[in-house]
User: What shape does this take?
Amino acid sequence: MKVLVLGGVAAGTKVAAKLLRQDRSMEVTILTKGKDISYAGCGLPYYVGDVIHEQSQLIVNTPEKYSKLTGAKVLTQMEAVAVKPQEHRVEAKDLRTGEVEEYAYDKLVIATGASPFVPEIPGLDLKNVFVMRTPDDAIALRKAVEAGDMKRAVVAGGGFIGLEVAENLAAKGVKVSVIDFAPHVLPNFLDPELSEYVENKMAEEGIMPMTGVALEGVEGTEKVEKVLTSRRGLKADALVLAIGVRPNTAFLEGSGIEMFKGTIVTDAYMKTNVEDIYAAGDCAMVTNRQTGKGAWSPMGSTANISGRVLAENLAGAQVAYPGVLGTGVAKLPGGLNTGRTGLTETAARAEGYDVISAMAVVDDKAHYYPGAGSFIVKLTADQKSRKLLGVQVLGTGAVDKVTDIAVTAISLGATVDQLATMDFAYAPPFSTAIHPFAHGINVLMNKMDGNLDSITPVEYASGAAEGYEIIDCALAPTLEGKKYLDLTTINGEVAGLGKEDKLLLVCAKGKRAYLTQNRLKHYGYTQTKVLEGGTTFTEIEEE
Assistant: This one.
């Protein structure tokens, strides 16, 4: 059987390799527009920052090496320009000669990926305007940095790639500003209050976020000198466009293949609506496994997983891909890491769930172990079913382990009650005796069951604490002008506090405030609230 694969980065090479492992008799040909195949797209920002030192490390496989490893035929610099389903043929243009050739197939796999979105604004033809999609892009940006004439740069785009590029440029001594049209960085990935926390950390590191602004143009004589935005002009020596990507599907016009906003619609078996044509990777839609709705997930992980499923189906199996959870992790400026999976509180409310959320600040390993830090964990659940809906985590440590536990839990439909007593791994260098994830779950359960009366950082910011007296419950006094209450001294009625007084209990992380609330309740105090996340997350104005 002749299988023609269009695209040779993540999904395309995965399909071909897995298919030939399943059935060596297949005749598999890959046509790819680029000179390279199977390169490390997610590693490009780290080459810019010299974390990845050599260009060769970005190339996972050369066409020659890949062909020997897999048995697939690879034709580079061949751009698909038309698909003819009735004839089972693809027209492709040789980018070296300009000639158009036809390729026959029995089965066609479209894995053409996506390209950086480049807005139509003046000045993009100037020197030192960069995108970040291929090894050549990263090589060009690093060369410009190392040439020594880049002192200030603007990164347009506050998503993963934009923030990773910003971090790596800053590490090379470049003064960086990040602009985004969205209200916050990492839009739709984190809830707004966590995005604001990231923005504050960026600013502390000298990387200035400017959100809610549009990129309007670039000025300069020969190279970038100023970046124009809807708010003001920014002096800069370079502009990096990381605004997002668009699927490479324009060549499919007239093919009859169903698309949604430029992405190819597929079923659970990665089939399109046209017989014998499949699709995977950044050019294709998948499914959100929580909502059942279509989802676009331009991630290397999704490309590889869906590509493997596609190959198994081409080889004769019936394997359904249940879809994505919006999972992601990223290394951010200032040594901060973030992870997320499932529905944010914002998304869960939009989907109609009976949402309850809780924020916990927990140790990421035994507090006495060198290098210990904290995780800020926000958990979202459905109050009615008690199922976990999502997790968001920030911290300097291994946020991926908290994220991946939640991936497993959500995928299997676990309730918070089932998660609280799971046998997680523990040793001081790695975790805490009660795992950080389980600790967060316990806070959420206490809130769900009425044992914890609290207000969230969002509620605090919106004025929910109005009328409450702030009580400092930290290990030692930290809030100037606020009454201090030491948990260990509470053995009855507290002088100066009435049992009906509205009291907002605040400590560094929230734990000591909760313990204080528990004791006060025992002695008849009826209107106490704990500030979730404590002063770690929320700055309290001092008097």
Q: What stands out?
A: DSSP finds 14 helices and 34 strands in the chain.
